[in-house]
Amino acid sequence: MSRGLPKLLGVIGAGQMGAGIAQVAATAGLQVAAAATASYAHPPVFTALPQHRVRNGLAMVPPSQVVLVDRAAEQLERAAAGMRLSLGKIVKRGMLKEEPEAVLQRLQHATDLEALAVADYVVEAVPENEGLKTGIFRQLDALMPPHAVLASNTSSISITRLAAATRRPDRVVGLHFMNPVPLMTLIELVRGLQTSDETFEATQRLAVLLGKTTCVSLDRPGFIVNRILMPMINEAFFALMEGVGSAHDIDIGMKLGTNQPMGPLTLADFIGLDTCLSIMRVLHEQLGDSKYRPCPLLVQYVDAGWLGKKSGRGVYTYSTS
After folding, report:
1. DSSP character for 169?
2. Where are the alpha helices (DSSP H) in 13-54?
3. pLDDT tens track for 274-286
């Protein structure tokens, strides 16, 4: 894979981010194998398999094997339903010429993590928990061939520390997609202390194939985007807690006053309040500055299970139908 694109690309995690990454891969013309699991002891996997063609001037080679992993059909069904809905909206907007089913036909299914034994590039997209991610990286490191690249979709956790859990720290990189993946054009590339030029360049080529624009960050807590974004969201929760304004007024003020597409509290609901809290805790613990202290109201909402749009309740209430 030193000068081309991966023959077998895996995405671990069939949640919102993993499903979005798989959708983008399938839309880009990749053959995608997808899986979902009940637990992360055997993580859900999407495997994207390039067709034999040239895209954006990059040679694509056919895969030698198509494999599909895991046991939890329910998660896979939820992911497929979400992708079908998302693709339908994109088609209606005139942003995609193919019908949703044509894209989804490139989605195949399997049942075991061993399917990645021949993969040469994997993107991990499980919840923002360092212990969970480290454990998966250890499993993949033992399973995958020595040349394979391990990328993490983490939005705040140190790539250098994740790499240290493997025997291939030069082949570990941060590949942080924005949510929702099909609509957001940015990928944040993060170089760990030992990430090689070859790994970084291969990751840049993959981003181009997926139609994304990249920014590059050093391996620092929160990287670029969340180092700036999450403290703003956290401050919006402080303003709400202290009664500075209602949720509506805070959001409309920031939306119209700073020309943002949505206010910080709405955005937090879309991201997931648990994810916002996890990132703020990383910033607070690793930077050691009280200005990153998570707002008690944010903590309380997460404790109550008010996680945002995905749970039906966050700052705002959402229909679950």
Report:
1. G
2. 16-27
3. 999 999 999 999 9
| β strands within the chain, DSSP E | 9-12, 30-34, 45-50, 54-55, 58-59, 107-109, 121-124, 149-152, 172-177, 186-191, 213-218
Distance CA 262, CA 255 (A): 5
User: For residues 286 and 8, what is the distance between their CA atoms, to the nearest angstrom?
Assistant: 35
In this predicted structure, the answer to whether residue 159 has a pLDDT above a threshold of 80 is yes
Give 240's DSSP letter: H
Q: Say what angle helices 264-271 and 273-287 make with each other, to 10 degrees.
A: 100
How many helices and strands, by DSSP H and E, does the chain display? Answer: 11, 11
Question: 186 pairs with which residues across the strands?
Answer: 213
Are the beta carbons of 111 and 70 closer than 8 angstroms? yes
Q: How far apart are CA 27 and CA 233, in angstroms?
A: 32
For residue 191, list its beta bridge partners. Answer: 173, 218
**What whole-number distance in Å separates Cα of residue 67 and Cα of residue 54?**
23
The 186-191 sheet, strands edge to edge: 107-109, 30-34, 45-50, 9-12, 121-124, 149-152, 172-177, 186-191, 213-218
pTM, rounded to two decimals: 0.83
CB 116 within 8 A of CB 10: yes
Q: Please, what is the end-to-end C-alpha distance for the chain in angstroms? A: 44
pLDDT of res. 25: 80
Answer for the pair 190, 174: CB distance below 8 angstroms, yes or no. Answer: yes
Cis check: omega of the bond before 231, within 30 degrees of 0: no
Tell me the catalytic residues. Answer: 155, 176, 188, 226
